[in-house]
Write a structure and sequence with these properties.
Helix content is 39%, strand content 15%. With 411 residues, it is an alpha+beta fold.
Length: 411
Amino acid sequence: MTPLPHAIFHGSPLQRVALARERFFEEGVLPTGLVSDAIIQSWNRCLRRHNDAREAVEFDPVSPSRAHHALQRNRELVNAWNAELGPLQQALRSTGCAAILTDASGVLIAAMASGGAHERLMPIAHRVGVNLSEEAVGTTAPGIVARTGRACSVMGGEHFFEGVRTMHCAAAPICDIDGRLAGVLDISSEVRPFHFDAAALVALYAEALENRLLVAQSRELLLLRLQVHPDLLDAPRAGLVGVDEQGHVAWFNAVAAGLLGSHASHPPKRSKLEEVLGLDYAAVSSLPREQARLVALPNGLSVWLLTQQRPRDGRQYLFAIERAIAGGPSSACESNHETSSPIAETPADLDEGDSICLAAETQTSTPDPSTLRECSRDIITSALRDCGGSVSKAAKQLGVSRGLIYRRLRS
């Protein structure tokens, strides 16, 4: 029997995409079942903005001021990228793939090149400041994720513009502490299709970046780590919960939501810790830090719990307080702060005469000294409590001298 010219069941993805493009761009028919709904919806949006899919694509950077603003606004996200870059490079080094990070609008803020000799588009498109939004370059995985906030893969001819059909990309969203889209992680390959599950890999690393971002944005919260096995508490698949000083759950990640089940509402609606985890805030906050405990959740599931206090900015914040109480940094420190380290490499060896220059970001206006002394004592007292009263351990944790701790407790 002669096969139908537009049979739905074709032998290869290339044939299905070719038929989808023919139906959509030439016949004006929605290619339902041939490509995903996310691709069809993106093609529709792009068609309203661009008349011809055969137009040449220009991977233009945004203005220098907008690029600078994107980098400044997303410093914590870029720091998370830098922390995960080594493992990601190792994972991709033999695949011929590259990874990029964009902000929530699709502007590229970090990139890892693959360096393939066959690449023509990636060296141009993967430059910091290039606008990869759907409005700028049509259907791409990072563009769709920036538009919808949902993970997406775009392979070959699924890209709107024909000039980009040599690309294969998979992208996943990264959300911030308020549940809003903070950025997009994308893995791309030019010409060569993926020979592994790129969607699963990019989702794993996006989750790792998101966890780092959430922790970085929770410096004044009690951070809880949850998992069914203690070895997973430091893994990307750890459940994370942020709790404020009033005992309200400020946020939790997707893994924690899965462990909590019906007791978790996303986003959290100022629920008390006791309602969500069945745990009293005072009891949890007094647990020894970095020591996992097995606890039972309200849903009956037993998980390992690890508490981590994040008091402001730690050592640098304490140094800022000390300098402000003393009346600000000396002129010698100001003249040398670009070359001097703000924290000694061996804090236990510092003595009372040591001079410590502040990083530029801590040299701000001088607040009320009495308030500063109270904050300083609070930080030191918390460190001593965490270290079981050991001044030496508290000094090492804070990165200061034992003498500074004794002086501040006497003041």
